[in-house]
Write a sequence for this structure.
């Protein structure tokens, strides 16, 4: 295990220094690498592997880091694998960002060589169906909270910096407390709030929902047009803007 650890630490230091000969030294002729950039089918063979490094070395020389932060090795008789995390990036990128690395090794004639590398960064994008489902849950939660007249639950998914265009009142309401006051007034009368048929489109950390709100109070149903914008935060999906209106008919 010490031999494998030294091999990997030597490789990491060589990558950071731009020492191509040492980077290649402990890799097999049939190396397969799945790298961060394409090709998606991977880089196959030592010659192809060698061609991936010059541009990376140029980027490293501009001030980027390439430094092990963790390394775990599992060793068998003639096969081993290692998993590692590395700081890889410019100083302003590496506070929390980590490159994930998996290495497969094979022992031949008493010597360990790397036969497979897989490099990746975590993907920050949120799949559209996941975001759209989560925003639908927010709308459904508002239906439940309205029925319970639960103001705190209604406000849980409202961003502190929300800007809301309401049916009446000021030109716009700025901030969660201003919107909370509007909602508190609305909850004074028991009501049913639903958003049937709303369309939701999510891309990464932003989503838009639009449709017709249905509000029933004292036996009367009122329909209103609604457009809402959501942002994904550490606290989940939060409403950052809404625009509510009734049609205005010529007199």
């Amino acid at each position: 295990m010490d031999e494998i650890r030294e091999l990997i630490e030597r490789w990491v230091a060589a990558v950071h220094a731009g020492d191509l000969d040492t980077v290649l030294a402990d890799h097999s002729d049939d190396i397969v690498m799945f790298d961060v950039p394409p090709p998606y089918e991977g880089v196959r063979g030592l010659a192809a592997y060698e061609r991936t490094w010059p541009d990376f070395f140029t980027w490293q020389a501009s001030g980027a880091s390439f430094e092990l932060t963790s390394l775990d090795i599992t060793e068998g008789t003639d096969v081993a694998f290692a998993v590692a995390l590395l700081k890889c990036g410019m100083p302003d990128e590496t506070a929390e960002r980590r490159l994930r690395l998996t290495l497969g090794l094979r022992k031949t004639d008493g010597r360990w060589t790397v036969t497979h590398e897989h490099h990746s960064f975590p993907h920050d994008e949120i799949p559209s169906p996941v975001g759209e489902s989560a925003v639908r849950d927010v709308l459904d939660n508002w239906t439940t909270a309205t029925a319970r007249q639960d103001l705190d639950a209604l406000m849980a998914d409202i961003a502190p910096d929300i800007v809301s265009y309401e049916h009446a009142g000021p030109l716009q309401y700025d901030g969660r407390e201003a919107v909370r006051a509007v909602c508190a007034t609305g909850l004074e009368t028991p009501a049913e709030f639903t958003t049937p048929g709303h369309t939701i489109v999510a891309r990464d950390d932003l989503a838009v929902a639009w449709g017709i709100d249905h509000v029933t109070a004292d036996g009367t149903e009122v329909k209103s047009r609604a457009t809402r914008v959501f942002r994904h935060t550490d606290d989940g999906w939060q409403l950052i803007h809404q625009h509510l209106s009734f049609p205005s008919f010529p007199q």
Summary: The two ends are 85 Å apart (CA to CA). The mean pLDDT is 93. The domain at 128-245 is CATH 3.10.450.50 (Nuclear Transport Factor 2; Chain: A,). The CA atoms of residues 113 and 138 lie 52 Å apart.
